[in-house]
Design brief:
Blueprint lengths: L1 E8 L4 E7 L2 E8 L15 E10 L3 E6 L8 E3 L5 H4 L5 E3 L1 E4 L2 E3 L1 H17 L5 E6 H12 L5
Parallel strand pairs: 1-10
Antiparallel strand pairs: 1-2, 2-3, 3-7, 4-5, 4-10, 5-6, 8-9
Length: 148
């Protein structure tokens, strides 16, 4: 299974929309892009395998694996990126500002249920992260081919 996260970058945070097979699952919040700086930046765009993980703090949650020069990048509940995230991704039900959302636990439970069901069936789950700008450019170029 592949989840696709399409991001919008802002100075105070990164907002995204998470998709599964062209169906919107939820929104996301992250820290702003700071050149992949540990604990200060969202992670780079790319394709990442997801894993099941348990911790005392978050219980069962999702680990984003194989992030260049980073470790312990998680998907877990949070409503305010700058105060509650250190490079992780938080699903939210709605976006209320740059890197700010609401009802994260509800959105996280929905996402976790879908991802963990795939793990139980032995399926691999990957997260593809891309920019909304790139997504718009690709869609526009497909619908407006150049005349040569």
């Amino acid at each position: 299974m592949e989840l696709v996260l399409v991001r919008d970058y802002f100075s105070k945070g990164t907002n995204g929309t998470l998709w599964l097979q062209q169906q919107q699952l939820c929104f996301t919040i992250e820290r702003p892009w700071k050149n992949n700086e540990r604990n200060r930046s969202c992670i780079p765009e790319g394709k990442y395998p997801l894993k099941k993980r348990y911790s005392q703090r978050f219980g069962w949650h999702v680990l984003i694996d194989k992030v260049l020069n980073r470790s312990l990048i998680l998907i877990h509940p949070a409503n305010y990126a700058l105060k509650e995230l250190n490079g992780c991704i938080a699903p939210v039900t709605s976006l209320t500002g740059e890197g700010i959302g609401s009802y994260s636990k509800k959105a996280f439970e929905k996402l976790r249920s879908i991802v963990f069901s795939c793990f139980e069936r032995g399926e691999e789950v990957n997260l593809i992260i891309k920019s909304k700008k790139d997504e718009y450019t690709r869609t526009y170029s497909e619908t407006h081919p150049k005349n040569i």
